């Protein structure tokens, strides 16, 4: 005999019980898969020490910084034709995060569930209404909803936005714009490339052309890869992205100011690689079949907003650095001006070695 249905308007927190030996969940206990130099001649005095310290710091910091380290928690909800819902957390949040409590719409009734599962009966109304998740303090929760005859839809929840409607939405999937911004700001290699390109290319009009070429190129490969028209293994792509940073650092160290055409070609070539890197991160989330193009456009727009933010911040910091350097003795300027190239080069070389050696490392 089924349990009585709750009164209308009563929320039923559907806590997912923990498997034997696991954490008490409210979220499924499953292991989380574990991401402007000028003339440098005449370096004397403190210059070698500055260079050595910069490279040492870069090499020590590099292994801890991983590009595209985008590993959101993934909650899968499957609705049957009779309104029953089965849920599971395919990838849980970080190990030290709080347990998650999944709260289905008010008319859904919780059912007994095996450890590590969520079950509910939403009746004839189906899985419609607000989905609320509590305990999400950092990172993202990707909700993949499968409905009979409707395919797969995707929602993105994050701290500050832990409620989302489960009703069909013909507009762009919520969360993909912010997801793009967060990815570019959290992807260390993309940040360093945009920062290095901003320091290398002058004047401002030429820099704008280079950033436009970078945008157009990575938008192309991102779209092709995300829509399944281009597939390349991620490890070689990541290694080539690191090599692109090495080349950029070399140009910065030699103070090689590229012509407009050379800047465009450099940015476009590297943009093709970085777009494949973006696609690898987007694959972690997936694109909803019914709204793949709007989701892709929203994600790409978020990447561009983050990229512009980085360029503006770097330009402001560069202007401040020039003002500070102008007040220093000439002897101290050369090693300090070389710091960006040294740090970028040290990190890029470390990443290149790490990613190439990973080809022969067990997964």
Keywords:
363 residues, alpha+beta, elongated, Hydrogenase/urease accessory protein HupE, Put_HupE_UreJ, membrane
Write the layout of secondary structure elements.
Blueprint: E1 12-14, H1 47-61, E2 73-79, E3 84-91, E4 101-104, E5 109-110, E6 118-121, E7 130-134, E8 141-147, E9 151-157, E10 163-165, H2 176-186, H3 188-200, H4 204-226, H5 234-253, H6 260-285, H7 292-326, H8 330-337, H9 339-357
Parallel strand pairs: 2-8
Antiparallel strand pairs: 1-4, 2-3, 3-6, 4-7, 5-6, 7-10, 8-9
Describe the oligomeric state of these chains in a short phrase.
Answer: single chain
Unreliable residue stretches: 1-69
Mean pLDDT: 75
N to C succession of SSEs? EHEEEEEEEEEHHHHHHHH
> Outline, from the CA principal axes?
elongated
Strand elements, count: 10
Tell me the number of structural domains. 2
Q: What gap, in angstroms, lies between the N and C termini?
A: 49 Å
Work out the strand percent.
5-15%
For the biggest β-sheet, the strand order reads 5-6-3-2-8-9
Class based on secondary structure composition and strand pairing: alpha+beta
Proportion in helices? 40-55%
Major sheet, described briefly? 6 strands, mixed
Q: What is the C-alpha radius of gyration, as a whole number of Å?
A: 25 Å
Count of individual helical segments: 9
Explained architecture:
The protein is an alpha+beta fold and 363 residues long. It has two domains: 12-29 and 71-168, no CATH class; 47-70 and 179-360, no CATH class. The protein has nine helices and ten strands. It has helices spanning 47-61, 176-186, 188-200, 204-226, 234-253, 260-285, 292-326, 330-337, 339-357; strands at 12-14, 73-79, 84-91, 101-104, 109-110, 118-121, 130-134, 141-147, 151-157, 163-165. The protein has a six-stranded mixed beta sheet with strand order 5-6-3-2-8-9, with no helix packed on it. Helix 3 crosses helix 7 (292-326). The radius of gyration is 25 Å and the shape is elongated. It starts with 11 loop residues before the first strand and ends in a 6-residue tail after the last helix. Keywords: Membrane, Transmembrane, Transmembrane helix. The chain crosses the membrane at residues 207-230, 265-285, 305-327, 339-360. InterPro entries: Put_HupE_UreJ. It holds the Pfam family HupE_UreJ_2. Residues 1-41 are annotated as: Disordered.
């Amino acid at each position: 005999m089924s349990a009585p249905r709750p009164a209308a308007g009563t929320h039923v927190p559907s806590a997912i019980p923990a498997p034997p030996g696991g954490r008490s969940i409210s979220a499924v206990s499953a292991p989380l898969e574990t991401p402007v130099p000028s003339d440098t001649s005449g370096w004397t005095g403190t210059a070698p020490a500055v260079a050595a310290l910069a490279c040492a710091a870069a090499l020590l910091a590099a292994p801890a910084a991983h590009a595209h380290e985008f590993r959101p928690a993934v909650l899968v909800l499957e609705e049957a034709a009779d309104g029953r819902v089965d849920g599971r957390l395919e990838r849980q949040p970080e190990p030290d995060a709080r347990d998650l409590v999944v709260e289905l719409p008010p008319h859904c009734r919780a059912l007994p569930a095996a450890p590590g599962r969520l079950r509910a009966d939403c009746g004839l109304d189906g899985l419609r209404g607000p989905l609320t998740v509590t305990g999400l303090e950092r990172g993202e929760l990707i909700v993949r909803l499968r409905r009979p005859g409707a395919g797969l839809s995707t929602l993105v929840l994050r701290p500050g936005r832990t409620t989302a409607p489960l009703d069909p939405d013909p507009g762009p999937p919520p969360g993909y714009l912010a997801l793009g911004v967060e990815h570019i700001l959290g992807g260390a290699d993309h940040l360093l490339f945009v920062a290095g390109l901003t320091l290398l290319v002058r004047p401002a009009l030429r820099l704008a052309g280079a950033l436009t070429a970078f945008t157009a190129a990575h938008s192309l490969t991102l779209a092709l890869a995300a829509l399944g028209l281009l597939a390349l293994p991620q490890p070689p792509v990541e290694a080539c992205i690191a090599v692109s940073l090495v080349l950029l650092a070399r140009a910065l160290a030699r103070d090689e100011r590229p012509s407009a055409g050379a800047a465009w070609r450099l940015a476009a070539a590297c943009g093709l690689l970085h777009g494949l890197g973006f696609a690898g991160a987007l694959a972690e989330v997936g694109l909803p079949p019914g709204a793949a193009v709007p989701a892709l456009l929203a994600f790409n727009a978020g990447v561009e907003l983050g990229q512009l933010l980085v360029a503006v911040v770097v330009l402001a910091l560069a202007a401040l650095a020039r003002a500070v350097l102008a007040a220093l003795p000439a002897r101290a300027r050369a090693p300090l001006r070389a710091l960006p190239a040294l740090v970028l080069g040290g990190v890029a070389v470390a990443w290149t070695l790490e990613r190439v050696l990973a080809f022969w490392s067990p997964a």
